[in-house]
Automatic annotation (TrEMBL):
InterPro entries: Ig-like_dom (IPR007110), Ig-like_dom_sf (IPR036179), Ig-like_fold (IPR013783). SUPFAM superfamilies: Immunoglobulin. Gene3D superfamilies: Immunoglobulins. It comes from the Eukaryota. Residues 27-105 form the Ig-like domain. This is FCRL2 protein.
Amino acid sequence: LQLNHSGRYHCAGWVSNLWSQPWQTSPEVTVRVRRVPISGVSLWAQPPGGQVALGDRLVLSCAVAVGTGPLSFSWHRRGLVTPLGTGPHLDLHVGNKDNGHYQCR
């Protein structure tokens, strides 16, 4: 379902061998499609624990357990305002300045 599917619905029909009977219509039902708040955000690292040597590859991944989209992701390291990347994954080849705490928003 999408948000634009909200509205009033009914069905109608007739018995095909009884042409003298008019259409029969069901009562209407109101459908409201709502956004589901995002929850269950998780972050994990590969290799596990995020322990890597200088020059190694570190992949951070972010996932949302529940919530309606569209979803967007931004990656931040504590102390920096500018996002390091967007999308559910951040791929780093670890350098001298990559130590720190990372966060997915």
